[in-house]
Write a structure and sequence with these properties.
177 residues, alpha+beta, two-stranded antiparallel ribbon, 6 helices, 8 strands
């Protein structure tokens, strides 16, 4: 894909129905997606892809454990710096905490169906079906055929952005940050 194609896919991916839940802080979360795209040569033909995105449990990445992880094999000065980082326990270190998320998009589990009609009508119908299923971890997306995977990655990054603050707050409530 050319950079313009990436940008086009990013700009033209929309969430019609977002998951009701965020990424769990202390366990893995499996989201189900329904991604609708128009066929390139037949605008009345819509491809509906269904699959899962598994978000692994977020890992807390603080200056304390970053020093432990990043400085393996370094000399005495680097080890002394790492020890100084481990001793920091004030507000600055809590603000410096980051979350690391791991994801797996299991393309082997993606199922594709073809339907006929308009993208908007089929999108509405799939949204109603998903809403009626009471699946709090399901999402419905509109994307572009050639860049559907790019749109799925964008959706995944948006999940991280929406969940990050709550996940970090959960770590704080448990005294882990």
């Amino acid at each position: 894909m050319r950079p313009d194609d990436f940008e086009y896919a990013l700009e033209n991916t929309r969430v019609l129905l977002a998951p009701q839940q965020r990424i769990r802080t202390f366990g893995s979360t499996t989201f189900r997606f329904h991604l609708l795209t128009e066929a390139m040569d037949r605008p009345d033909q819509i491809r509906i892809r269904r699959g899962t995105i598994e978000a692994e449990k977020p890992a807390l990445f603080t200056p304390e454990n970053a020093a432990r992880l990043l400085l393996e094999g370094f000399g005495e000065r680097a080890e002394a710096f790492a020890e100084a980082l481990r001793q920091i326990r004030d507000d600055r270190s809590a603000r410096a905490a980051l979350l690391r998320y791991g994801f797996q998009v299991r393309k082997s589990e993606v199922v594709e169906d073809l339907a006929h009609g308009s993208l908007e009508e089929l999108g509405d119908r799939v949204c109603r079906q998903v809403a009626n299923s009471s699946d709090d971890l399901a999402a419905v997306l509109l994307g572009v055929e050639d860049g559907w995977e790019v749109g799925l990655v964008k959706f995944t990054l948006d999940l991280v952005a929406q969940s990050g603050r709550d996940n970090l707050d959960d770590f704080r409530r448990r005294g882990l940050v």
